[in-house]
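### Sample
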Amino acid sequence: MGQPLSMDLRTRVLAAIDGGMSCRSAAARFGVAPSTAIRWHGQRRDTGGFAPKPQGGDMRSRRVEERRDDILAIWEARKDITLDELRDAVAAIGLTVSRVGLHRFFVRHGITRKKRPATRSSKSGPTS
């Protein structure tokens, strides 16, 4: 993902617009797209600010976190449940979430779910 353009450039473009230049000519002068200058000008007019908006971040985990107690209750009742089975159980209570979303939920809460396969005992030394 690209980085937002600097506040210095935004300030210079908007100062040129305030000085009487059109948005398109100010954009050409400072080497930005005309739509960018128009968007910055409109943002400042509507909100009073022209700072870049936040980029990225988690936008969907809020739904899963709201049902945290339900998910953990299902998991506590049957600790050997797979993520697919857990997803089906959670869907039965009205929450649609992907297997990866459930995996991220457990990672966020520091809960490990790895099951170790049964291994034959070693004749030469202890197994872990």
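Residues 7-47 form one domain. This sample (Transposase) is used throughout the tutorial notebook.
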